[in-house]
Amino acid sequence: MSSIPLHYVDLRAFCYATEDDKRVEQALRLFLPEDVELDRVETAGHYGDRILIYSVRVERADEIRHVLTQLASLPALTQVIDELDDRVTDNTELFLTLDKQAAFNGTVSRGDGITFRGKLEAYPATREAAIENARDILTDLDESE
Fold first, then answer.
1. 135 near 81, Cβ under 8 Å?
2. How far apart are CA 14 and CA 55, in angstroms?
3. How far does CA 11 lie from the centroid of its chain?
4. Which of 43, 75, 95, 121 lies at 20 to 30 Å from 67 by C-alpha?
5. pLDDT at residue 145 above 80?
6. By C-alpha distance, which of 94, 92, 93 is closest to 77?
7. Which domains, and CATH codes, for the chain?
8. Measured over all CA atoms, what is the biggest interatomic distance in the chain, rounded to whole angstroms?
9. What is the mean pLDDT of residues 128-140?
10. Which InterPro entries does the record cross-reference, listed alphabetically (predicted)?
11. Is the pLDDT confidence value at 144 over 90?
């Protein structure tokens, strides 16, 4: 995977008042190189409970490769490829949700808790071109695993 047809990758996780913020941060860090810093914003829920929002944008090719390498261990990668029509937006973005608890335990799994958004390169910037690029990326990951 020499060329990465992604402009950037955003990862985001919410940490609710009932969760340990260190564990949520550790879950998100599974996907990131060591030197990448997370943004942390504190907000309040509907009833005033504390919610922390951890987010990061990786834009450098090596960092994106690291995220994709982690994503390559996703057991249902073939299923994600089959669902690209539902996962790529008109804005040429690829969305996935990943299991926060599994990530804390060191494995990559589909589920809830961590949002992956990749801005796909597409020339021309059409949804169809973005789907083809996403298919290429994910097929390369699936074959490398």
1. yes
2. 9
3. 5
4. 43
5. no
6. 94
7. 6-144 (3.30.1440.10)
8. 48
9. 93
10. PAB1135-like, Ribosomal_uL5_dom_sf
11. no
Render the burial of 14-52: b for 16+ CB within 10 Å, e for the rest. bbeeebeeeebbebbbbbbeeebeeeeeeeeeeeeeeeb
pLDDT over 70, % of the chain: 97
